[in-house]
Amino acid sequence: MDCPMNRNNIYTQEFSNELTLNEYETKINRYGFIKHQCGGCSFFAPFNSDWGLCCHAKSRIFLETVFEHFGCESHVNEGWDKHSFRD
What we know:
Layout: H1 18-31, E1 44-46, E2 51-54, E3 65-67
């Protein structure tokens, strides 16, 4: 089975990986919200008010462009202000 890959381009207005977009849409449709959102993670580098780069090497979405309301199992909660990029 062919798997869509991260396009290795910087996207500031959309997910860089189609599989991650599909996962986000499934979570939102099922739960209506995501508990630990990327925007509050220590390793989220924002591009603008909605999109950013995951900089957490332990995350499945490492180096992907993601929506601030996406979330993963490697989330390190630090709040929605400045981020330290450490555990």
